[in-house]
């Protein structure tokens, strides 16, 4: 049975029904711009719109959030309204939407999907997924098991958060060419490689569709294999749906 995945981002909120056995979307995803201000009530209103557009799909909902999330409670909110910090999002969304909602970190959701259905499938050792978008998200795995809420995008690089130097948002804001931006990404990835000695990096987010424009430069700066996410920007939706479906069955 399909489960709806919702991906809350700094610029857009996306949703789609997911076949959690196959790791695929069963309908074209719907994207609505993130409201400003992105308060819980405003975000819940957008999610309700998305759910109504897939009204034939009942049951639990998986929701990703761009911040640290523990047991449904949001602890940090770097790229959305600060009112989210300390907010009981899981309880709130379940009550507001009238169905069980599971909330988790957005990069963790994407990583879970890539490890089950994408570039990380069957890979043991340390695998790090990095999402490049409004910010930089991270998901770290050891032998397929997730270390949640790592938030490597906030590691300091040249006196700034890594995401304030190398997120895709920075490429767009500063109108950087692909080679120049790729060097910034490569510097960040090289720092992660030095600290964690992973066996594989997976690069996710919407920009993974254009991997040929920047990954060759990044790979030249890092000895560890660096590959694009196979599920690309759908990974968060798939991962959120997987977690919601499995939470409902336990």
Task: Based on the model shown, name its key terms.
alpha/beta, Nucleotidyltransferase, domain 5, six-stranded mixed β-sheet, five-stranded mixed β-sheet, globular
Commentary on this structure:
With 250 residues, the chain is α/β, with parallel strands linked by helices. It has 2 domains: 3-108 and 234-248, Nucleotidyltransferase, domain 5, CATH 3.30.420.40; 119-230, Nucleotidyltransferase, domain 5 (2-Layer Sandwich). It is built from 8 helices and 15 strands. It has helices at residues 40-53, 89-97, 106-117, 163-166, 168-173, 178-196, 215-221, 235-248, and strands at residues 3-8, 12-19, 24-25, 30-33, 61-65, 69-70, 73-74, 101-105, 126-132, 136-142, 145-147, 156-157, 160-161, 200-204, 226-228. The strands form 4 sheets. Strands 1, 2, 3, 4, 5 and 8 form a 6-stranded mixed sheet that branches. Strands 11-10-9-14-15 form a 5-stranded mixed sheet, sandwiched between helices. A two-stranded antiparallel ribbon has the order 6-7. A hairpin with a 3-residue loop joins strand 1 and strand 2 (12-19). Helix 1 (40-53) crosses helix 2 (89-97). The longest helix is centred in the C-terminal third of the chain and has 19 residues, at 178-196. The protein is globular, with a radius of gyration of 17 Å. The model has no long low-confidence stretch (mean pLDDT 95).
